[in-house]
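Run folding on both entries below.
>entry_1
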Amino acid sequence: MARTCSVEALVLHAYDVGEADRFLLLFTRERGRLAARARGVRRLGSRMGGHLLAHQHLSLTLAESSAGWTVTSAQRLNHSAALPIEQFAMAEEGCELLLALLHDEEALPAIFDLTLHFLQSCREGQGDPVLAFSLELLRLLGLLPAVTEKEFPGHLAPQAIRTIEEALRSSGSLASLPPALLRSLSILCRERIEEHANRTSRCLSVTRQLKEWAVPAR
């Protein structure tokens, strides 16, 4: 008999498979990252098909068998409209980062809450939240050591660290930081991610291109 459980989940990716199924890569509050198949949800009349899409926040019932996890019911916990293309690309970049750094079935509730806030920031469209999300994710995973001038020579001096911490405390955003400091942070994050990632993010070049398109011509 299949074992069942209820989880709060974020859909990191959704793939159509077979004639009517959808394969989901989920990040759950209770069990961390896991994969599940939703059978028949692409058929006309399916009640779950419209819920099981990328970046959705859901309450799911899952059944486990020898073939893996199967979604048996789904309820949306957010009711936002589809993201515009630039915000969608930023959300994809964050989801790719999670898939690159997280291991299967390891509960990480603090990172779940961070991701929930990140996706909401993408929906609100106020600046680019990816860098702040990346820094906090690396910190929570223990992949960002106590940042000092000695540990990261040429990147971040102690005064810069204080500036970053103050910006995050006051607004949760890095938008007010000088461009040179933002570049240093980007380099730092990229190096740490490349060192520890188990897969390469496919969205970085897409997001960079979208940002270039968004710059007004002079």
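>entry_2
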Amino acid sequence: IDINMGCPDKSIVDQGAGAALMKNPKRAREIIRAAKKGAGDLPVSVKTRIGWSENEIESWLAELLSEKPAAIIVHGRTKKQSFAGTADWDAIKRAVEIAKGSGVVIIGNGDIKSRKDGVRKAKESGVDGIMVGRGVLGNPWFFNHKVKIENVPVAERLEAMIEHARLFEKFLKGTKNYNVIKKHYAVYASGFDGAKGLRTELMGTKSAKQAWHVVKRFLRKNRV
């Protein structure tokens, strides 16, 4: 069970959830405690950021460590930054130092551009692991160090996109709205001639089947 104490989205923060919990450490600790009590044998982890508007990793991490979650995932930005600027991996390295000897796993997150980059950041910071977020969007080849996304043929990328959509419907239909998958379409269908028009058509689809018809028509008309 992973508790999100880092989401910077206004609609989440306004409810006192996500990154807002950094301003209410007492409640954050109570949530971790309650989750651990109800989770049984399931490990409970926390994903968070280095602070609200500035680096507060020293005091904030101490609050989380006091409840001994199984792991803490640290994104190297403040809530104020959202996803602007660059992730502070020195702050993540400091989190590793603070947690040393606690038995809590520290996982680093933020601006990981490739598998190789992730391995390098892990070694330099000393984290126990890496979490990849936006870097993998539209790029299921991310973890294959032999493949660079720019070298993957457009047709293959679009076929992967459709497979992604079909799996989304297979496992999440009735739970998640189809429109959720469209944010992935926006990333898969980018960086090549005709991509903008293709994205526009994909945004009008209502199923993976419709999206596949759009892609087939695009591939017949375009040499990409």
